[in-house]
Specification:
The protein is α+β, with helices and mostly antiparallel strands. Helix content is 34%, strand content 37%. A hairpin with a 6-residue loop joins strand 3 and strand 4.
Length: 175
């Protein structure tokens, strides 16, 4: 019984140490160049409804239900979604707009786990018909996700999804 107690205390202490040591904030972004004018790219990405055409999470869910509130593409527009286990359930709200340059959204995941993240897009004209776009996600990892991230980083997990989404966006806009 005493040995079990000491092992349990050691295990709890080890996990607490991992949590204290782990990085809790993440900021994952990817960049791509799209052969379209900046105005066209920004006009497309600012509409939440368009995400079902290029966002990798939407494309992985076969039976996704979406509802919109507010004027899509404008400040405070909200998209609610419910899909399969890969996409879960949540909302996305446009929280910041710098026309033609920056779009930020607050993403509230309800299922399969509760989490809050900031999604962001930035566009920059390289040439009149070429636009550099940055797509990223920023957030905070609470326990136990902070410990899990030591072994399975958000950079790997979200980075792959951001890259895939940007490739889909490029294909969609360059049609």
């Amino acid at each position: 019984m005493t040995l079990f107690f000491y092992v349990a205390i050691a295990l709890i202490t080890f996990v607490a140490f991992l949590h204290a040591w782990s990085k809790k904030d993440y900021d994952v972004s990817r960049t791509i160049v799209i052969n379209r004018p900046k105005a066209n790219v920004y006009a497309f990405i600012r509409h939440l409804e368009n995400q079902k055409l290029w966002n990798s999470w939407y494309l992985k869910s076969e039976n996704i239900t979406t509802k919109f509130k507010g004027t899509d593409g404008k400040l405070n527009a909200i998209c609610y979604w419910r899909g399969n286990d890969k996409i879960g359930e949540g909302t996305q709200k446009i929280t910041k707009i710098k026309p033609g340059k920056v779009l930020e959204t607050k993403i509230l995941l309800l299922k399969p786990t509760k989490a809050v993240a900031l999604g962001y897009f930035a566009t920059k004209e390289i040439q009149p018909e070429r636009t550099k776009i940055i797509f990223g996600l920023r957030g905070y990892l609470a326990f136990p996700y902070s410990v899990i991230s030591i072994f399975y980083s958000m950079e790997n997990r979200l980075g792959k999804e951001c890259e895939e989404s940007l490739q889909n966006l490029k294909r969609e806009l360059e049609k």
